[in-house]
């Protein structure tokens, strides 16, 4: 046994006080008269023995009371087998990710159990111990301040991964020279023991896994459309992929799909444990405006991920700009309301029409000026698609400079020895190529393919779209900046190609334009995305200096932001924790409606148990310990028993009180047993 304050043991000298009182107590003899003197000897003998025994018991009670009182102030304790001196602050990391909303063995949410266990930690340390909550900007504080910070913890969808949080906690523990307590469900998709294996042996880490009840957890993994171009008043095929992140099978899960405020579809589907299933529903947009959509899954008891939010809006028109001497493509693109067409002459000098073009078709220009080359470079850098059709008689140097500027290298001009080079057959398209997806719609391949006389050739560094039968490329794509450059090997003019008169011409040119389409925003985002980029509508001027804000109901957030051309890059604010719909505003005016959801990895409830964690860590790392919960003993009690010791001051207090009670009982009994005085005989 050891003492926290051993100098209080000097108080044991006070034991001499009741001993001295007992030895030197002077009592006035009491005269008792008896009518029969034969009993005097017997009465004197009995009362003397009883009085001596009672005096000794009272003395023992008083000595014991003083001893227990001194021990109470000295605070004795039984040393723990793994006791260490606590010097630095106690660091605590409480996982407040969305997965902590599952129900635990205690029938409470895991985050509630974690908060309860973490709040009791100060009981395992001395009153002067300092605590630091990882992720809390308040730094090191007292036990009371730490408890208040723990009680204020809320679930958030913006957590770092568990590995990132662990790294942050270990860094803080190293700075404060103290142990780290980690309360989490330890999901297998986010926790790795690699960081723990490289720890210094002096760094103490205590893992507290919180286990949830085995259950099914069906959630929406993703939604997508078969057609990237959403048209109003047309049936749209929406595919919904459901995943079961729980340990049990959901045999009949109800699912509802809402478009705006109307229910668009309802169905039931079984989802096996740890498996996915994809369902197809038909939805329709009745106007051109963006619609707030959601998929609701009726799944309990884990319900934090039962709603998936997304947006749908009819596609905007694709802006096609043809740079050529004459507008050959006008009729082609004007026939389809999906496109807007504009023609520019190569030598116009005014290329402002290229600034917001989705597709720039540079067709058979004899020379590419420096101004046109600069505008094409700017367009491809912001994500536009460039289609280049070479001219039969072109300035090789200007084209070579263009290829170099936009990053299309190794392009060579075919030598011509007078006249038109021989025509070569174009090979049939490969239907497995994603470029031709849904182009043929079950039709047979064209029996007769077009012919072409290439004037350009290049290495196989691009993505092949169409090739000649002899193996050379006829049409290929090259990534450049944020956009794509498509290059034809031959001109479209008569004598060099009959491609414009072939059945492939229209679908290929439409497909090139469709490939250039970029949505202004994604249907849905995740709250854990650190950064996102959205394309601003044409009506929004990028020159204004007003601040973009994200609003939802009465909540308003100002994200870090930077405008890059026609796009704005936003950093999701740390305080934005709740999934749902948010409006991007500027100067009080709505710009975009955006949907945010929890990270889908949080819905996978597969976690490490305490036994699995111990197996992962191994027995050769005594500085890492795993505490189990749910056994009737708190983490604080377990830590105190193994690291701090068993305090005995409570027993000393109880002993002192019992001694006082015993003394009172002895004195009361002694008073009752006094012999009553007898009157003197005459």
Automatic annotation (TrEMBL):
Transmembrane segments: 6-24, 56-78
Top-level taxonomic group: Bacteria
Keywords: Membrane, Transmembrane, Transmembrane helix
InterPro entries found in the cross-reference section: Aerotolerance_reg_N (IPR024163), Double_TM_dom (IPR011933)
All copies of domain Aerotolerance regulator N-terminal, residue ranges: 1-76
Pfam families: BatA
Keyword Transmembrane: yes
Descriptive protein name: N-terminal double-transmembrane domain-containing protein
Organism, as annotated: Hymenobacter mucosus
């Amino acid at each position: 046994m050891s003492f926290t304050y051993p100098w209080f043991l000097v108080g044991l000298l006070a034991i001499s006080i009741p001993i001295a009182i007992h030895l030197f107590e002077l009592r006035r003899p009491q005269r008792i008269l008896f009518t029969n003197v034969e009993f005097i000897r017997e009465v004197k003998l009995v009362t003397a023995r009883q009085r001596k025994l009672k005096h000794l018991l009272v003395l023992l009670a008083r000595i014991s009371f003083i001893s227990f009182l001194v021990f109470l102030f000295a605070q004795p304790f039984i040393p723990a087998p793994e006791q260490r001196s606590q010097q630095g602050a106690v660091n605590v990391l409480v996982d407040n990710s969305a997965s902590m909303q599952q129900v635990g063995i205690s029938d409470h949410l895991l985050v509630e159990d974690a908060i309860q266990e973490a709040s009791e930690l100060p009981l395992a340390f001395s009153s002067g111990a300092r605590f630091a909550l990882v992720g809390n900007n308040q730094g090191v504080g007292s036990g009371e301040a730490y408890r208040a910070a723990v009680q204020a913890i809320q679930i958030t969808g913006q957590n770092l991964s568990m590995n990132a949080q662990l790294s942050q906690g270990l860094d803080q523990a190293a700075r404060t020279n103290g142990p780290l307590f980690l309360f989490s469900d330890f999901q297998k998709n986010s926790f790795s023991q690699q960081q723990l294996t490289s720890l210094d042996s002096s760094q103490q880490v205590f893992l507290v896994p919180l286990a949830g009840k085995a259950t099914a957890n069906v959630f929406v993994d993703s939604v997508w459309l078969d057609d990237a171009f959403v048209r109003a008043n047309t049936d749209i095929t929406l595919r919904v992929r459901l995943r079961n992140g729980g340990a049990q099978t959901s045999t009949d899960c109800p699912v509802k799909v809402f478009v705006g405020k109307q229910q668009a579809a309802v169905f039931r589907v079984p989802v096996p444990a740890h498996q996915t299933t994809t369902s197809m529903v038909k939805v329709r947009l009745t106007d051109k405006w963006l619609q707030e959509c959601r998929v609701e899954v009726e799944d309990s008891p884990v319900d934090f991920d039962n709603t998936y939010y997304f947006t749908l809006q009819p596609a905007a028109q694709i802006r096609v700009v043809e740079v050529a001497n004459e507008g050959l493509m006008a009729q082609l693109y004007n026939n389809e309301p999906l496109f807007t067409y504009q023609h520019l002459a190569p030598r116009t000098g005014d290329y402002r029409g290229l600034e917001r073009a989705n597709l720039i078709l540079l067709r058979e220009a004899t020379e590419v000026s420096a101004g046109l080359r600069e505008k094409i470079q700017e367009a491809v850098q912001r994500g536009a698609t460039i289609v280049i059709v070479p001219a039969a008689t072109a300035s090789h140097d200007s084209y070579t400079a263009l290829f170099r500027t936009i990053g299309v290298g190794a392009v060579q001009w075919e030598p011509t020895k007078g006249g038109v080079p021989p025509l070569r057959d174009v090979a049939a398209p490969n239907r497995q190529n994603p470029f031709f997806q849904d182009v043929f719609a079950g039709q047979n391949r064209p029996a007769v393919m077009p012919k072409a006389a290439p004037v350009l050739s290049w290495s196989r560094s691009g993505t092949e779209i169409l090739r000649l039968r002899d193996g050379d490329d006829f049409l290929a794509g090259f990534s450049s900046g944020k956009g794509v450059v498509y290059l034809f090997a031959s001109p479209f003019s008569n004598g060099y190609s009959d491609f414009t008169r072939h059945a492939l011409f229209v679908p290929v040119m439409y497909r090139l334009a469709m490939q250039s389409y970029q949505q202004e925003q994604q249907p849905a985002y995740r709250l854990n995305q650190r950064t996102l980029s959205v394309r601003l509508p044409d009506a929004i001027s990028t020159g204004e200096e007003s601040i973009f804000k994200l609003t939802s109901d009465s909540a308003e957030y100002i994200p870090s932001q930077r405008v890059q051309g026609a796009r704005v890059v936003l950093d999701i604010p740390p305080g934005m924790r709740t999934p749902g719909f948010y409006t991007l505003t500027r100067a009080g005016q709505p710009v975009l409606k955006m949907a945010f959801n929890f990270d889908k990895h949080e819905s996978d409830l597969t976690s490490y148990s305490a036994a699995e964690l111990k197996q992962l860590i191994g027995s050769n790392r005594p500085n890492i310990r795993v505490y189990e919960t749910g056994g009737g003993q708190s983490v604080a009690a377990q830590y105190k028993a193994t690291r701090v010791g068993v305090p005995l001051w409570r027993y000393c207090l109880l002993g002192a009180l019992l001694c006082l009670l015993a003394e009172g009982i002895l004195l009361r009994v002694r008073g009752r047993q006094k012999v009553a005085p007898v009157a003197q005989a005459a």
